[in-house]
């Protein structure tokens, strides 16, 4: 078959360094292994690094035969703001222009949602040509826009965002099938679109392929961490890897680090990544000698770091979209056989409780980081508990 995958906001095979396999890469790789032809459509603007991809042209073929088509847009500096909405509007317009120049049709398409505008344009264009479309819903756009507003602005915001509500509902209704990473998310999407569930509407959890790192790459990564003093020295380390954005609440992390310093328990927090909130976070934790910010790291360094840690932390805010899902950071922690520390309610809380893969700490604002600190202290003082949770996570 000829398969089109449209996905923005994820690493791509054409990105510099080792691209983290997510929805688009995992699906593309599996299709290619099965002998299908795959075209991956995405944005030229890299959402994670907030920069434009440095490629020779908008079209590129990778070594394994994957065709990558990059659609231009304006880019943006912050995840929330008018600049991002403008970027998505222009991305949809340019996508429609690219489609008009396309000669061949796919046999089936897998379309990421959001952005709303591109999902609508592509699904409508393919639908008119009788191409089956699977819509992969990852976020509660545009409902999440309204929920982020103060209560007194919510009615006005809903009126202002009516075009997005219209396009979103129409998109969900017009596709052949809807997929999501958790049951709660699929139920929300079908309910929002007023669409009855069919046998084709399915849940496909996020995954993390194994065996990505060679022995040499891992050895080099361990030496890199040695240079930063992250070694097997008896220190109980907690790590975070991701984008520093408004999706996370690091206040309890800072407070827990302060408790750990005062208790002198040999606990260190290794916070890896980049993002719009990083300068502010570094400033707020500059007084903490048990917190380091190594920057953005690749998969070999992540696996080497995990070997020096007792747990990972996923400090997501309890926004409706995260409560209904099992986000990437949770999947990463499980794939590395590390106990998970999270304050998330909903799907992740159920996962922690039912499968015993970590510890849920108090919701941010309920204490001064004491809940997170107590969870870390419990793991650090009980190797048996740590091993049990780690083995459950691996399983």
Q: What does it look like?
A:
The protein is α/β, with parallel strands linked by helices. Helix content is 42%, strand content 18%. It contains 16 helices and 16 strands. The chain has helices at residues 23-33, 82-100, 116-128, 143-147, 154-160, 162-174, 183-192, 215-227, 251-263, 278-284, 299-306, 320-323, 328-335, 347-355, 370-381, 383-394; strands at 2-6, 37-43, 45-46, 51-52, 59-61, 67-71, 108-113, 133-137, 177-180, 202-203, 236-243, 267-274, 291-295, 311-314, 340-342, 358-360. The strands form three sheets. Strands 5-6-2-1-7-8-9-10 form an eight-stranded mixed beta sheet, with helices on both faces. A six-stranded parallel beta sheet has the order 13-12-11-14-15-16, with helices on both faces. Strands 3-4 form a two-stranded antiparallel sheet. α2 packs parallel to α3 (116-128). It is globular, with a radius of gyration of 22 Å. The model has no long low-confidence stretch (mean pLDDT 91).
- In whole angstroms, the N-to-C terminal distance is 34 Å
- Specify the overall morphology: globular
The averaged pLDDT comes out at 91
Strand content: 15-25%
Radius of gyration, in Å, reads 22 Å
Strand order of the largest sheet: 5-6-2-1-7-8-9-10
Largest sheet: 8 strands, mixed
Count of DSSP strands = 16
Key phrases:
42% helix; 395 residues; eight-stranded mixed β-sheet; 16 helices; six-stranded parallel β-sheet; alpha/beta
Write a brief structural summary.
The protein has 395 residues and is of the alpha/beta class. Helices cover 42% and strands 18% of the residues.
